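Page 47, continued from p. 46.
Same chain as before, 367 aa.
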Amino acid sequence: MSVVKPIVQTMTATVAARTLRSGAALAAAGLIDPAEAAAADAAARTLPIAITPEIAALIDVTDADDPIARQFVPDPRELERRDEERTDPIGDGANSPLSGIVHRYPDRVLLMPAMTCPVYCRFCFRRDGVGPEGGTLSEAELDAALDYIRSHDEIREVILSGGDPLMLSPRRLGAIVAALDAMARIEIIRIHTRVPVADPGRITDKLIAALGAGTALYVVLHCNHPRELAPAAREAVRALVDSGIPMLSQTVLLKGVNDDADTMEALMRALVRNRIKPYYLHHADLARGTGHFRTTIAAGRALMGSLRGRISGLCQPSYVLDVPGGFGKARLGPIDLEDAGADTFRVTDWRGGTHDYPAAAGDAKAD
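Result:
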């Protein structure tokens, strides 16, 4: 019996042809005013346009501030550049010994077999590398990347990223998973993707079979707003989880999309209802032309603090920032404990109240 409903499976063949890829197409679909088409195309020169039918259907065209549109419809502000912004904001290049590999931490490595995506998020931190021209690794490049992983004994975890690895055919994706599964030293395979939300018809029986591995394999869904978990997306997620694949989530904190407590609470609850464990809430990176998306860190920490009393620990992501230059992630808090002196800590509860807590003997300060 199929684990994916036929109505979902039939969507895949026509999605690429119906994906909106130009200012004129956005105007024809009613997502922008025809007078804005030229500006959209100008912004698209910094990052291609791609909005699948599933994402387009989520946009409320009567709302000028629609949070789904904000993520995917080009904005003229993308042409603005701030001094602190970078073409490679998280330092992939500094940690890339060969094509398709980013080795930032000793025990884990990014393998990026494809640099194409079903949709292009306007806040993308790899906006200078992804797109239809990004392509996929050649057979020789992929072999070299896999050999690199085999030759580094410290690597225990491989993260398939890009681009979106679920844009690969089930045959090619399955070959990569099988190659990693054959490496006895690899303990975890992660696949980071937008596909279940943006193009759920790709989650077919064949694709799920391609993810079969003896190695622990996780699918990490990029999802930023509760409306993205539409019925077809929930069905795709259900198919993955019912097949035995655990799922986590990654969310980017975005001004005007999810930077209020009500929306973030609704998103985290929706994820957990669909058996997806919230993993990371990313502070928006310093990618070129994305300043209109970034909140302050203080606002992000206040938002995380407000969630403590609203949702359980199961629903809580870790709020993190990628340190510019390729130095990895830093946790941003909020911090609930501070040194109050006299062998005492001061703890802040979820209501904002403060309480003294005695330091353990091993924590006592030297005289």
